[in-house]
Amino acid sequence: MAQGATLKAFARSRQRPVRREVAPLSRMRLFWDEWIAWRLATRSDRIGAMQKAIANQRSRYEGLEADALRALFAKPLRAEDLMEPTQGAERFCAVLEVFRRETGLRLRDNQIECALRLLSGTCVELRTGEGKTLAAGMAAITAASVGVSVHVVTVNDYLAQRDHELIAPMARFVGVSLAVMQQDDKDDDRRVGYDHDIVYGTNKIVVFDHLRDKREQRTLGDSHRPRQTGQALAIIDEADSVLIDDATVPMILSEPADPPPPVDIYLFRQLVAFADALTEGAERVRDRRGSWRLTTRGLALLQRAASGWRHPLARTSDIIELAETALMARYGFLEGVAYIVQDDEIVMIDQATGRLMPDRKWDYGLQQMVELVAGVPPSNETRTVGQITQQTYFRQYRILSGLTGTAKECRGEFWAIYGLAVWPVAPHAKSQLQGSRLKVFRTEARKWEAVARRAIEVAKTRAVLIGLNDVAESAALQATFARMQREVAVLDALSEAQEAELVARAGIQGTITIATHLAGRGTDISLSEDVKAAGGLHVIIGSVMPSGRLERQLYGRAGRQGDPGSYDTMVSLQDRGLIEGAFSLARRGATWMLRLGAFPARSLSQIQADRDRRSRSMRRQTLLREQDMIKRLGYR
Q1: DSSP 8-class letter at 436
Q2: CA within 13 Å, CB half, 624
Q3: E strand or H helix at 302, and its extent?
Q4: Nearest to residue 107, comparing CAs of 155, 161, 51, 44?
Q5: Average pLDDT, stretch 286-302?
Q6: What integer is the mean pLDDT of 182-195?
Q7: Contact between 333 and 279 (Cβ < 8 Å)
Q8: If you ran DSSP here, which 8-state letter would residue 516 be given?
Q9: Which of 267, 289, 372, 415 has the fewest CB atoms within 10 Å of its CB?
Q10: What one-character-per-residue DSSP string does 388-405 give?
Q11: Nearest-CA neighbor of 285 among 295, 299, 297?
């Protein structure tokens, strides 16, 4: 958020929506803020006095009649005064009492602290299972009660609907309006939704609605009626997923165009067949960035092959780039990892969340070649009509805040891009989570065997959650369980529709659930009493995760709210996380150490840190490219 910004009750408006002007960020400024400035920033604790005032007053409201409690919300209070203890404490206490009556839960001190910090424009790190949903709901309702328009943004439709339903009774009591946006809503329903005081929805919905409004404004002019009514306050649930993991590529609004010319399809087929015939090492290799390239021998083969292709580009230098695109389509984007085939169409898998992205397509050429590799009909061209990075969109909110269980690894990036300080809030109970040392196997087959046997053994008395990277790994492990004649539940990109049901059963004794690393994120796994008594949920991290932060998210599913829990980490030297991608000198050294069995945990941590640095660099480049495009073209 803009440093020093305070809450303000801006009127919702489609003609003059409130938004913050976003200044461009230079490469030097980003480097300085990400590596140095966030460490020097003064952390002033502005909410201490408010916490004391709430603690001293909240018991006074427990005996009030319902009408008297409702009357408190009719008392005038300026949004600018909400965070002043002498004026705002009464409003917070009244909201806390509403939560107590409607849910039967007395919000804990750390949840109250979380809500206060959210309204101060902070990214709160609160351990998984500590009640972040209620804390965010308390912040949203309190702000809306003084006229602040609030968007609560989360990672998927299921969580948006669930959180909306949880908060709805309190919102009705207080007298603020509440809406939830879903992917299949009509435009008129969206416009009605944005007219509410509090709007729940996913980051993809709010960003794409913004892009559609911008596009229609350019094409329709004054006759256009926007969907959105401003960007006053955003509370981002699972902030690292939304603001970091999802920010690697820009959000692109596109429209179907003409079918690909037959001559292009002919060329794409030739290129895919050419790529299929190349020998790894001699004719195709990976470069330091992890992309597939032609060797000198491969280039010579391409020159000979292209001489017989009937296409204008076949005898130009562009054919080299197209051939290397075909290599990525054939060897870089694997089914079950980068996409699945559904209803005879390619559906991309979000590499950050493991979820399906039916509204996304690759660039022209790559998309059609992936479809040819997968054996589905090539799709039409698409025309880009608008794009924006998540970084730019969310920086437009006048006040931006977030909460997550895993923020500390991203402190520099949160500060450099969004001006968000990360503030850890202590859990209400000491963790009982216990971990075992890292186990490294020579082959993937041995690892899957060990993971399955460990899961079956633990599940005799407890519940087991196995975390993997993608659908392909999930299928390989399922096959191992099938050979052992053991049934398992699977939560991945192919089973999103059953997410709530699968999560509800995941804490029952004897249940083994396989989940891709972020499928089911934000949902609580409720443990049966016999599972708690036997040691709680056991998590097995069964693959090399892209970062240590994602590992923390996975094993953080166990040991929630002071419950017992444990986790294992099992990887193999054949895991894609070790053998694929860009290899810096540091990563090569760490991989070599891991293969020797020297300091395996430290070596794996260094590999993940290197991958994290490259991901940060990609996000930085995404933002800088967008800023350069805006500067040159004056277009967003």
Answers
A1: -
A2: 13
A3: helix 296-306
A4: 51
A5: 90
A6: 94
A7: no
A8: E
A9: 289
A10: E-HHHHHHTSSEEEEEES
A11: 295
